[in-house]
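User: Structure tokens for this complex, please. No commentary.
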Amino acid sequence: MSYSSDVSRGFLQATLNAESAKLLFGATSDGINQYRTNLYHHLIASLESTYPTLRALLAQELWAELAREYTQCDARSHWDLNLYGQDLSSFLGSVLDPESSDIFYDAARLDGAVQKALFIKTDPPVQAQDLIKISPDLLGSLILTPQDTSFLLRSKHPIVSIWKAVQQALPFALTGQGETALVSQGAGGGLLIKILSDCDAAFTEHLINGANLDEALTAAFAINPDFDFEKAFASQFQSNLWRAYQIEGSE
Amino acid sequence: MNPGFSERSTSKPLLGLGLRPPHLQEVIDKKPDVDWFEVHSENYFYGSHLRKYLLTVRQDYPIALHGVSMGILSSDGLNEEHTRELERLVTDLEPLFVSEHLSWNRFEGVYYHDLLPMPFCSEILNLASSRINDLQDRLKRQILIENITRYVDFSESTMTEAEFLSGLVKSTGCGLILDLENLHINDTNLGHSASELICNLPLNCVQEFHVAGHEASTAGRLADTHDACVSAEVWELLSQASRRFGPKPVLLERDSRLPPLEDLAREARQSAEHLHMQPSGRP
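Assistant:
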């Protein structure tokens, strides 16, 4: 065990125990409180910045309780505060009933996906022209692999409209038609967020979940026989949605 | 040098401002009257959407990269992914300075998101020297190390902060950011004389000064919040330090309760009133 390990362990014990603090820091041991305050403050500030929509939807007391409990349970395994709290939506179950609170889950998942699209690195995208080399009779077996930032959310609530209103500090209505959000990171690193039609949502969702192109098209045409497949497919490539492709059954 | 960088962006700067994400677009649009900017490196790693804005700002201003999450004194060692991202950013930006704090933030795989202190002793000096040498080798350039705010004193310390920093400069060739706000806080909270530290550092080691504002508790303790204007005491320390070390680039840091950009630029320019252009070698 190295000397710096011993010091680190002692320091962390001292943040929890006044006697340990006195041993390690003597007359200045009261100062350890500032480190406790700082740590909590930085984590809370990070959650507030990542989850503006969830925060706007929850009562202040409930948000504060959620954030406090989350910071106490999370393992903090990444150095980047921009990516802190990525699993907050799954943690919500400890403070909210999932059945009656789905709008909060949707808000948390959308906020988390947006933050990811704003900060994580994506692979070089598959371009539409990359597919030209595929023989037309094999295209139906095409399978696409999404970027880590590609995220589709089906909501019973107008979740994208609420998100946009919160971004612009405008009032928003909780009721309204449900929306399906598609979040991705644009080629230049910017955020792309769209509301998909039902058939486009079915088409995109099938592809994101690993279905082949034939299966995705079947699902979309079942909803709308006039579905403009070419336009929807081109839009996916413009949105930097895919990082790899393969033909099903081939190596 | 990148041919896309303007003459101004490569000039010798003095009055600088900490550039935070909410002001990026405004800086591009209005080009405020400051000489240079410093940014927190980590906000521009990976696929950060902010990177393209920073590259645009870089065309017109020198940019310094200031790390807040590397934790060079962490017993777990340097994070390879973090170092690689910093290396990439340094290549893209050709920064004026690259700096890190003399602190740790990780233990047994868990991150503590703060600038945590270590004792001033030979074991930690050896550790710091080794990590800084590794980092300088990786980046192929000198890095600057900043003195941190300390809210406790380790009973295990066997040297003063000035002795520790001097040893670090000697063993690694790194430079120092002298954060005058941190010195003032340590002076007030722990009784470590800021003036004495300024006197006891070698003359050629300081490359940059930091100034910022703090929050005071009713008990008179100060917290390094970077959310207020620079205090008279800190401006006075800047005068003392520039008398000793010369007119080094000064950086105004503001991280929360951000005022309008124009006000921040004005406060940054105020540094000029406290800089002595002819160093005397004495504070």
